[in-house]
């Protein structure tokens, strides 16, 4: 994934339910600390939309059926996005989503990055109910 003398990219996983504020917090971290925000869902949707995508139909089928996309595809898209970036600090939003994702990441990517931690955003029922 990188040259011998290159520093390993730094990664923070950003997890939480829809509406938990992951995007808001990512925007603040990007502004304050210079991380690149990689949304696993957005990368999948972009790949699905490419006319000659090798994985477009597979992604489309999984998303329409509400299934998780094969980990090899998700990890491949994340790796490509990190390789294309000049910045080497990443917030990965929406990944991993299950144990298979964790195992795939560990097998294919973990040795090539420095995992700094996991940010888990939680919506408190009381504060969320005030907006309804």
UniProtKB/TrEMBL annotation:
<dbReference type="GO" id="GO:0005524">
    <property type="term" value="F:ATP binding"/>
</dbReference>
<keyword id="KW-0547">Nucleotide-binding</keyword>
<dbReference type="InterPro" id="IPR000850">
    <property type="entry name" value="Adenylat/UMP-CMP_kin"/>
</dbReference>
<comment type="similarity">
    <text>Belongs to the adenylate kinase family.</text>
</comment>
<keyword id="KW-0418">Kinase</keyword>
<dbReference type="Pfam" id="PF00406">
    <property type="entry name" value="ADK"/>
</dbReference>
<dbReference type="GO" id="GO:0019205">
    <property type="term" value="F:nucleobase-containing compound kinase activity"/>
</dbReference>
<keyword id="KW-0808">Transferase</keyword>
<dbReference type="InterPro" id="IPR033690">
    <property type="entry name" value="Adenylat_kinase_CS"/>
</dbReference>
<dbReference type="GO" id="GO:0006139">
    <property type="term" value="P:nucleobase-containing compound metabolic process"/>
</dbReference>
<protein>
    <submittedName>
        <fullName>Uncharacterized protein</fullName>
    </submittedName>
</protein>
<dbReference type="InterPro" id="IPR027417">
    <property type="entry name" value="P-loop_NTPase"/>
</dbReference>
């Amino acid at each position: 994934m990188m040259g011998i003398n290159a520093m390993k990219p730094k990664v923070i996983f950003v997890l939480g339910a829809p509406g938990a504020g992951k995007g808001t917090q990512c925007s603040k971290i990007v502004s304050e600390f210079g991380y690149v925000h990689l949304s696993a869902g957005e990368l999948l949707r972009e790949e699905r939309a490419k006319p000659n995508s090798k994985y477009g139909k597979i992604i489309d089928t999984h998303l329409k059926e509400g299934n998780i996309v094969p980990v090899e595809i998700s990890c491949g898209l994340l790796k490509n996005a990190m390789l294309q970036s000049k910045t080497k600090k990443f917030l990965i939003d929406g990944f991993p989503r299950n144990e298979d994702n964790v195992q795939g990441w560990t097998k294919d990517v973990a040795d090539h990055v420095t995992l700094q931690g996991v940010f888990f955003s939680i919506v408190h029922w009381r504060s969320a109910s005030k907006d309804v």
